[in-house]
């Protein structure tokens, strides 16, 4: 698989569930995009990211997100939403592939609530993510029960035409954010999971 040095990543804040689903579908169908991802922070606010690989980066737009003192990726992305501006960055390819590793997606904010604090990241960021086995060994019964009762990790394959209805249902039933939106091309074929029609 040919790879290049950088991922040129575009960040686009989107408001309104219908607009989010429409923009995410458009980005997913655009064959020019090598990478498409959405982080939805509420029912009606998200950032849609699209990326391509390149060997050349604009020096003033390089973001080495894998460095221990950098903000967690999902929080960095959220800054585009709160600032309501689009942006472009160049991220080293390996760091892009591990963009959610340091914060275990957004799990670490529940385990170490102060973990994204700049002082903590500067002094102790090199220690994260902690080994899950260590966390389980050191957690008390109350923390374990709290985690089991207020924690959701669920992967679902939703046809794009049902995305808006699915997100609305998730919001009504559990209302847990952020949601990670990832397009997935399921080719026709045999097996238990395969698309019928569109």
UniProtKB/TrEMBL annotation:
One of its GO terms (molecular function) is Delta24(24-1) sterol reductase activity. GO terms for cellular component: cytoplasm; membrane. The keyword Oxidoreductase applies. Signal peptide: none annotated. One of its GO terms (biological process) is steroid metabolic process. Keywords: Oxidoreductase. This is 24-dehydrocholesterol reductase. It comes from Iconisemion striatum. The lineage of its organism: Eukaryota, Metazoa, Chordata, Craniata, Vertebrata.
